[in-house]
Amino acid sequence: MSNGMDTAFLSGVEQGRSDAASGVSVRIEKLNKFFGDNHVLTDIDLDIKAGETFSIIGPSGTGKSILLRHIIRLETPDSGQIYVNGQKLFENGSPAPLTCRSSMVFQSSALFNSLTVAENVGLWLREHRVRPEERIREIISEKLAIVGLAGKEGLRTSELSGGMKKRVAIARSLAMEPELVLYDEPTAELDPVTTDELAETIMSLRDKSGNTTIIVTHDLNFALYLSDRIAMMHQGRIIEVGTPAGIRASSNPLVQRFISTTTKGINKV
Average pLDDT, whole number, for the chain? Predict the structure, then answer.
């Protein structure tokens, strides 16, 4: 049973590598994607460092989530290439085999309603039979404790708040010991307090694990708070890359318009 959340880079555990995760570099070169006549990604170039927390921002419909789906190999580019630690993600129009581990936390959290919290978190481990059952139960408890949900193993999805669902999804992701974690609109439908708590959780996980984190979000304040660097997309293109301070100080009118709209709630220009 699988819902497509863990489709990439699974071989590291099977090869007996230790539980410790570390970051990987991600390089994107001249990536293009069409859906019919719609050119949704145009000549995307990005260089993300190992261990970096990197956010991709921009209004809805700019191609952010589609780009993320290419990095997790749920989409295949029409041209261009993505490299993880120097290894190609695609060969001859298909995903290439790799030895890195990656996981994605979807906007909807993608939890199974029929499973308990513990069963959701341990799903990938049990599907791939990479650990004995006793160790799987230990890992589930460890990861839930990390995201502040110790003792919640027996709860059902229907009993969870939106913020708790996000934390369970993150714990499930961490159970894979990924070197690359991707978040698609993690603050969607969360209130400001829960958003702050989620930001602190993501930052704490980054500091403890050293993995590479890529976040797609339209929440500018969230991105500015926890990112090492930020890329802004507009109409399928990367128009600016920089540190949070650099993005704030950008002279690009499209970047300034986005900042003005997101921080003031209205654009008066």
Answer: 85
Number of H helices, E strands in the chain: 10, 12
- Express each pLDDT in 125-138 by its tens digit: 888 787 888 899 99
Name residues of the chain where pLDDT drops below 70. Answer: 1-21, 263-269
Asked if residue 56 lies in contact with residue 231, where contact means CB atoms within 8 angstroms, the answer is yes
Task: Outline where the chain has alpha helix (H).
Answer: 11-14, 64-71, 117-121, 123-128, 133-146, 162-174, 192-209, 220-226, 244-248, 253-264
Q: Where are the domains of the chain?
A: 11-264
- Could you tell me the pTM of the whole model? 0.84
DSSP 43-54: EEEEEE-TT-EE
CATH of domain 11-264: 3.40.50.300
- Cα 245 to chain centroid distance, Å, stands at 22
